[in-house]
Amino acid sequence: MDVFSSDIDGGKAFDWGRASADYARYRDIYPPIFFDKVSELGLCVKGQRVLDIGTGTGVVPRCMYHYGAEWTGADISENQIAQAITLAQNAGMNIDFVVSSAEEIEFPDRSFDVITACQCFFYFDYDVVIPKLARLLKDGGRLVILFMAWVPEDDAIARASEDLVLKYNPSWTGGRYERKPVFVPEIADGYFDVEYSEDYDLTVCFTRESWNGRMKACRGVGASLSSEEIAAWEHEHMKMLEESTPEKFDILHHAAMAV
């Protein structure tokens, strides 16, 4: 399903379903600390029912499954959900998945103890989503917003890869990330209180092949370019990595969360 937004990539259409295979293979990259910090707050743990919106290939439910919560994941893309179901089943995980945008998702009021949104909250229509999430949460429930991105100003490899994405897709707005706390829209003030927030640096280890896959599975490449453009980008990107990086390397990332 093509998605358009005047605030994202200059209105250029993108479809995560086109990148689902690479997304499933290369974007499950979050270090354990990223999820440990959530569980240490007593969230997404045994005895709780959790909804993950914008779940993609089910990264959050799958990575947090061992903490014991009962999970449901929702995403607008049928292809993403198909990958999520396969990955969860192959791992022996009992996770419910539904195809739905965050704006249209339907469950009875007060169904969930926790709702999570990782790497996706900025895509939503806040005026619709925020009141809906407040209704879906039980009394005392928590909304957890998570984000992690590489830091191009302090990581030369990430910067060079971004430059190549912009060469093929100049309208891409997903690059040039600068460290900042998780954004909480103003409308949330009428429904939620921010009780905890944190941001911190961390590194993620890649090989040339896995970093190429991670970049290929970003919105600016796999979700929006033509197959011919993707092939040309990938050829040039792999050549750049072979000429300028060791086989294994770390990429500096910045992570942030708000509860």
How would you portray this structure in words?
41% of the residues are buried. Strand 2, helix 4 (78-90) and strand 3 form a beta-alpha-beta unit. The protein has eight helices and seven strands. With 259 residues, the chain is of the alpha/beta class. 33% of the residues lie in helices and 22% in strands.
Spatial strand arrangement across the major sheet: 3-2-1-4-5-7-6
Structural class: alpha/beta
Strand portion: 15-25%
Integer average pLDDT: 96
The 3D shape can be described as globular
Q: What is the assembly state of the chains in this entry?
A: single chain
End-to-end Cα distance, whole Å, is 30 Å
Radius of gyration: 18 Å
* Number of helical elements: 8
How does the major sheet shape up? 7 strands, mixed
